[in-house]
């Protein structure tokens, strides 16, 4: 494609270098020819079929022939005989001949074939005075194109033959042509701001009529349209003139940059303390390798923004090339597209917006175009895994994708950077566990037991006795995460969470101010078209409106809650509770599977049954849990959208918040249920050998003597890491496969229809290339946010069970930032830019999760670790070395008290009279056998006290941090206040100047007033008649 386009347009350039001007009709036709021939290739509609061949002289030995070109209707009005004589005006200069030959040699087409477009009919001839004839016969060898009946050739012939040599212009290059036509209208000046696509083979009259009405309404709003026809998929290019942008920028209350105002240069940040300045210089030199390339991404100057008003148009920096950046232009046009009717005479909310047209199949899609130059720069410097350690060009991302997408990447990058300190602390805690591995008294006593401690069976009848020493390996691994550093790490994570959330608010405030979005209020948002459509279809609202003598939309935004909104909301949340219950049932089924597997493994009589139960079985159950979670995740994502669409969400922000809450509540239960079970329920209500508590006839699962923290760690690693791997594969592989399959289907359809003379879409300009990309759905960012917020929950809720969880999240996120960028730039169409001042309800969700994490950590430390039992043992016995602590935690049971003794007792356990189990209960020889001893109640009291004290201390510290770290830094607050003051003064001065200028125009001078007064006619009183008048 590139070679034939380059050759063609370089040829046009050479012809134009000898031509200063051409008739307007010819220019327009030629522009249409360029687009039609080179972007449609073999699918142009027309009458009849022409076969064109291009032959070069024998010296070059090159011949090209391709059938199947159908003459375009876009060229039918061109005329001319196309014959040149080689000596007169019909020939092109010898230098043009030489230049064209040089171009063809440079493209490597001397021997072989090239892909010049069929139907061009370009003649290159040697010999004679003419040297070359375009579209006709030269004076020498025969020209390309045979008889010269190609209309483009005749047009070129007339251009080169009717214009004098003194009017010359520089030739157009191929790159200049691509810039002019790939993202421009045919005039090469107006940019393509939006594209509508529809099936050109759609012959339904109603569809055609709705398109005409819709497009006429767009033109009535001031948008400029240009049709691109001739392909099976037809396109409508949209352009918004400045006046339209001005009008809607005022309607949407968009803040735009002002010209420099007096005093703006004096807004300088306060000088830092000498120590802080030194520290800043050291940090900059230390992290110089991660800085952005300022040559590619220059720093933006600080500018003052004001809500746009045409009243103050002179104050705005309208001459700035980026005054209306791409995201702002696209958002304005998208707003217009969403609010235009397409049924004449029935302008209801149900016949509104381009989304409805796409749903009905009238249009296939509506999208914005990628900017190839900026896209390539972002792909090279930002969407590149090799640049994982570099900072992100957030200002340029905001200009390209809009503030909403840019804030997501800013938040993800900030969150990733904040993981660095806690990752280091987690590594230190893990290393501490390795260093003190052999000093743990519990694992040491278990491994040195030598089989003397016999444990009771872990299931009824089918399970056998087992030796405590079988859990030696698992007890050592358990110590890695259950040591004295556990409480320290939990405390650090609780403080880190608040610091992260508070400093994110400060950081985002600076970004939002720099982007001119400070003070952006979601309350000024306009109602969603879907919301208006629901109102228009509601009979209750219509009755209320008719009673009030108004339209249904008159109730907007005050739609009654109890009579209108209550039932949809109640139904939506009831269904949500139902599916949450389904998720809990699925987790319970996996738990029962684990109980059954413990019994079945004992029946099989494996020698390593305890190793299997302690290590292998939890891993297999975790993998099954991950599969179930992934399946339910797909169901929930679809269900949440359906339920939210059923509700009455007035603005897009309300819709986003409602959908976000449903997404996260589903996933909270889905991902965390099994972890909460292991942390808080497993092994806590088992009973004792004479009276076990059962579920569906199965005994509840027990923890090994070292506790359940090791199993919680394995479950966390499997779900967290497995989820990250699955999501990474899905995010990159699925879009790639979908795009590949889509291209294959298009190629297959073209191949199948080639003999039927049916058209195909050739992706050789920007809007056809982007048409073949995947659509960027409105809820695409939800999935990205959800993945990271669920990961945040893993870290903050359960990371004390696995101190390396922040490190794994850090590694994943460093790659995730780049993968998300690659996905959005390579596989998806460019999204419509949307304004946002924060990450929305996601911040509130993380705040709630942080508060839940305080209670979660306190309960895990109190009930799932050995911290408090160890402290009580030390205090009660004075054994600070914990030499007999293991025996302290094990109770005795008389095997004769079994209600259902084991059936398959091996010979080594035949004469067992007592066994041990992990519980605080009286031995069988006590006067109150198997009852709770006083030490149990003492430990329970201290555990509950610890939870209360821990929560209050951490909550108090978190509150102090929230108070000490304001949402907006002091410097930024002073800057905002100073800018607002200067802005008010500047507007007052401008208003005063305008009023004075208007006063000078409207009030005449005193002299002119007196002259007019003296020349007023007055009636005489001398009886000269009624009609006599005189001038005083």
UniProtKB/TrEMBL annotation:
Would you tell me the protein name for this molecule? Answer: Anoctamin
Stretches the record annotates as Disordered = 1008-1032
Positions of the Anoctamin transmembrane domain: 397-979
- Which family, according to the similarity comment? Belongs to the anoctamin family.
Which coarse location class applies to the principal site listed for this UniProt protein? membrane
Q: Which InterPro entries match?
A: Anoct_dimer, Anoctamin, Anoctamin_TM
Q: Give the transmembrane region(s).
A: 408-435, 485-504, 570-593, 614-636, 663-681, 716-738, 792-819, 840-863, 935-953
| One GO cellular component term noted in the UniProt record for this chain | plasma membrane
What superkingdom does the record give?
A: Eukaryota
The record's subcellular locations are: Cell membrane; Membrane
Anoctamin dimerisation domain location:
185-394
Topology in the membrane? Multi-pass membrane protein
Species annotation? Drosophila willistoni (Fruit fly)
Comp. bias (Basic and acidic residues): 1008-1023
> Which terms in the Gene Ontology molecular function aspect does this entry carry?
chloride channel activity; protein dimerization activity
Keywords recorded for this protein, A-Z: Cell membrane, Glycoprotein, Membrane, Transmembrane, Transmembrane helix
């Amino acid at each position: 494609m590139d070679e034939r386009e380059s050759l063609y347009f370089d040829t046009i350039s050479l012809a134009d270098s000898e031509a200063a001007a051409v008739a307007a009709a010819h220019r327009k036709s030629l522009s249409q020819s360029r687009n039609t021939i080179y972007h449609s290739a073999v699918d142009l509609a027309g009458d009849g079929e022409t076969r064109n061949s291009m032959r070069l002289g024998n010296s070059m030995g090159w011949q090209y022939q391709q059938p199947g070109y159908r003459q375009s209707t876009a060229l039918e009005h061109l005329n001319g005989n196309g014959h040149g004589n080689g000596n007169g005006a019909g020939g092109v200069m010898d230098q043009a001949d030489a230049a064209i030959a040089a171009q063809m040699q440079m493209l490597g087409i001397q021997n072989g074939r090239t892909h010049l477009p069929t139907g061009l009919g370009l003649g290159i001839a040697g010999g004679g005075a003419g040297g070359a004839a375009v579209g006709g016969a030269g004076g020498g060898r025969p020209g390309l194109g045979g008889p010269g009946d190609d209309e483009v050739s005749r047009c070129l012939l007339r251009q080169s033959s009717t214009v004098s040599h003194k009017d010359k212009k520089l030739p157009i290059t191929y790159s200049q042509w691509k810039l002019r036509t790939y993202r421009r209208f045919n005039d090469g000046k107006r940019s393509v701001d939006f594209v509508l696509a529809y099936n050109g083979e759609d012959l339904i009259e109603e569809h055609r009529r709705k398109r005409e009405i819709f497009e006429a309404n767009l033109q009535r709003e001031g948008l400029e349209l240009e049709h691109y026809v001739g392909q099976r998929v037809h396109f409508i290019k949209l352009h918004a003139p400045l006046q339209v942008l001005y009008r809607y920028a005022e309607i949407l209350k968009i803040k735009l940059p002002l010209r420099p105002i007096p005093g703006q240069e004096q807004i300088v940040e306060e000088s830092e303390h000498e120590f802080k300045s030194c520290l800043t210089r050291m940090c900059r030199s230390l992290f110089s390798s991660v800085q952005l390339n300022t040559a590619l991404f220059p720093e933006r100057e600080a500018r003052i923004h004001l809500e746009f008003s045409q009243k103050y148009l002179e104050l705005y920096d309208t001459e700035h090339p980026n005054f209306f950046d791409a995201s702002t232009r696209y958002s304005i046009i998208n707003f217009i597209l969403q609010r235009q009717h397409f049924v004449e005479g029935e302008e209801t909310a149900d016949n509104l917006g381009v989304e409805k047209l796409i749903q009905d199949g009238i249009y296939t899609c509506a999208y914005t175009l990628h900017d190839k130059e900026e896209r390539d720069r972002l792909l090279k410097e930002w969407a590149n895994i090799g640049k994982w350690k570099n900072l992100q060009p957030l200002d340029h991302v905001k200009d390209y994708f809009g503030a909403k997408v840019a804030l997501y990447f800013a938040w993800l990058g900030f969150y990733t950077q904040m993981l660095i300190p806690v990752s280091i602390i987690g590594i230190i805690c893990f290393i501490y566990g390795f260093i003190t591995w052999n000093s743990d008294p519990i694992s040491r006593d278990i491994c040195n037991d030598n089989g003397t401690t016999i444990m009771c069976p872990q299931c009824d009848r089918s399970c056998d006795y087992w030796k405590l020493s079988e859990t030696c390996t698992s007890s050592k691994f358990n110590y890695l995460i259950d040591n004295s550093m556990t409480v320290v790490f939990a405390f650090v994570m609780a403080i880190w969470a608040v610091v992260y959330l508070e400093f994110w608010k400060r950081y985002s405030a600076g970004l939002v101010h720099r982007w001119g979005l400070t003070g952006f209020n979601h309350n000024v948002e306009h109602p969603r078209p879907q919301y208006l459509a629901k109102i228009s279809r509601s009979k209750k609202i219509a009755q209320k409106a008719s009673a009030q003598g108004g339209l249904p939309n008159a109730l907007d935004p005050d739609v009654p809650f109890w009579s209108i909104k209550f039932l949809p909301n109640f139904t939506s949340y009831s269904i949500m509770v139902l599916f949450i219950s389904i998720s809990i049932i699925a987790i319970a089924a996996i738990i029962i599977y684990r109980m059954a597997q413990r019994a079945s493994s004992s029946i099989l009589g494996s020698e390593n049954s305890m190793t299997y139960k302690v290590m292998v079985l939890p891993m297999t159950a975790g993998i099954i849990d991950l599969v179930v979670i992934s399946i339910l995740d797909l169901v929930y994502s679809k269900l949440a959208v359906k339920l939210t669409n059923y509700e009455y969400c007035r603005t897009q922000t309300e819709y986003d918040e409602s959908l976000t809450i449903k997404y996260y509540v589903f996933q909270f239960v889905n991902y965390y249920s099994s972890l909460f079970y292991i942390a808080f329920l497993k092994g806590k209500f088992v009973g004792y050998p004479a009276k076990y508590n059962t579920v569906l006839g199965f005994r509840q699962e027990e923890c090994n003597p070292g506790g359940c923290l090791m199993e919680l760690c394995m479950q966390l690693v499997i779900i967290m890491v497995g989820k990250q791997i699955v999501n990474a594969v899905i995010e990159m592989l699925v879009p790639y496969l979908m795009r590949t399959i889509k291209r294959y289907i298009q190629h297959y359809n073209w191949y199948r229809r080639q003999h039927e003379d049916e058209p195909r879409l050739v992706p050789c300009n920007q809007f056809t290339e982007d048409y073949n990309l995947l659509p960027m759905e409105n809820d695409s960012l939800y999935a990205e946010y959800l993945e990271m917020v669920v990961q945040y929950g893993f870290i903050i809720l359960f990371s004390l069970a696995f101190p390396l969880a922040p490190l794994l999240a850090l590694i994943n996120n460093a790659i995730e930032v780049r993968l998300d960028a690659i996905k959005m730039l390579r596989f998806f169409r460019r999204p419509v830019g949307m304004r946002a001042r924060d990450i929305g309800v996601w911040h509130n969700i993380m705040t709630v999760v942080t508060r839940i994490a305080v209670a979660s950590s306190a309960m895990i430390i109190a009930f799932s670790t050995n911290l408090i039992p160890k402290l009580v043992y030390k205090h009660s016995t004075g054994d600070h070395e914990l030499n007999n602590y293991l025996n302290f935690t094990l109770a005795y049971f008389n095997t004769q008290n079994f209600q259902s003794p084991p059936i398959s007792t091996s010979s080594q356990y035949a004469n067992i009279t007592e066994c041990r189990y992990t519980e605080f209960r009286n031995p069988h020889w006590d006067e109150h056998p198997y009852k709770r001893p006083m030490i149990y109640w003492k430990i329970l009291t201290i555990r509950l006290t610890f939870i209360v004290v821990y929560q209050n201390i951490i909550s108090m510290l978190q509150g102090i941090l929230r108070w000490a770290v304001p949402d907006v830094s002091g410097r930024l607050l002073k800057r905002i206040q100073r800018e607002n003051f200067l802005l008010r003064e500047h507007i007052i001065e401008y208003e005063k100047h305008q009023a004075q200028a208007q006063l000078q125009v409207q009030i005449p001078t005193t002299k002119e007033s007196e002259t007019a007064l003296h020349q007023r006619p007055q009636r005489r009183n001398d009886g000269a008649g009624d009609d006599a008048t005189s001038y005083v």
